[in-house]
């Protein structure tokens, strides 16, 4: 089976082809640089950029895989959650291609795509836990079987990636141009800093729930840097970045271990943009390993938003005989239902 995937839920325009066993034949991602000046994604600019690049990106994916639409068995597309104007661009293109080529359309939940990102490179059998940490989401999920998900915990305010992005912005680290990946900049700085230099708060550490909260941490960083002179701030940047990152990692590791205890599931899959964070990977790998479990995570290119994961989830549903009607709507606030498909 061969599935074309299209992802336009936020600020990446992506198209990919995956074949049997979710093998990626092409994975093209065009990141939008136009938001850099604003320090965050501007929805109107995002939809316009998707409009400009979606067709060329799909063409590039087909060319890279060396296939035509006629050889594809289905077209998978992110239907939500995400920015409505951005989702509509991908959906409209997917519907048009499905109609023109006479192929089934498969609407995919963006978070289910992230769950499938681990299946592209690893042989991973349910049940497993997924810690999904991205710019828009922070969730602990139990994957009872593919297509059946239970949310064990989530962030009560900011997502982990959002916290990285906001802290990068308040520290004045975002470049004037280029992509707005605050997490990557903080992680680079943190590599030379002391993670125990500053004792930033660990919210909900003793709370019995599997929820997270990161907005207080962001405020704590702001309160810490406010009284510093420009020179002091500059000198302390690596320590601030490392101490902030450690607080995020502690929260993520702590709740994941608690989820392992509660569910008795020892296999953990990390997904989403923040899963590219080396400190998080290393700390989680050690913690999960010490408890006799195993941690999986995708290559960085499959951590951040991409269409290979959407094609993979689409391929799974298609192989189970499920597809969507051409009246499929964008669902900006779509939730991941216990039985998805
Ligand atoms: O999954 P993704 O591409 O987008 C959403 O669906 O939200 O994740 C993007 C997020 C951004 O917040 C970015 O700052 C964060 O992932 N990120 C990182 C790293 N690389 C990307 N956060 C921490 N460490 C990194 N190395
Ligand atoms: Zn995402």
Describe this structure in words.
By secondary structure, this protein is α/β, with parallel strands linked by helices. The protein has 2 domains: 3-116 and 302-319, Nucleotidyltransferase, domain 5; 126-297, Nucleotidyltransferase, domain 5, CATH 3.30.420. The chain is 43% helix and 18% strand. The chain has a 5-stranded mixed sheet with strand order 3-2-1-4-5, with helices on both faces. Bound molecules: 5'-O-[(R)-(carboxyoxy)(hydroxy)phosphoryl]adenosine and zinc ion. Zinc ion binds next to helix 3.
Features:
binds 5'-O-[(R)-(carboxyoxy)(hydroxy)phosphoryl]adenosine, binds zinc ion, alpha/beta, 5-stranded mixed sheet, Nucleotidyltransferase, domain 5, 341 residues, globular, 2 domains, single chain
* Strand residues, percent: 15-25%
Q: Output the number of helix runs.
A: 10
Q: N-to-C terminal Cα separation, in Å?
A: 18 Å
The major β-sheet equals: 5 strands, mixed
**Strand ordering within the main sheet:** 3-2-1-4-5
Q: Pick out the low-confidence regions.
A: none
The percentage helix is 40-55%
Bound molecules: 5'-O-[(R)-(carboxyoxy)(hydroxy)phosphoryl]adenosine, zinc ion
The outline comes out as: globular
Q: What is the CATH architecture assignment of the largest domain?
A: 2-Layer Sandwich
By CATH reckoning, the class of the largest domain would read: Alpha Beta
Rounded average pLDDT: 94
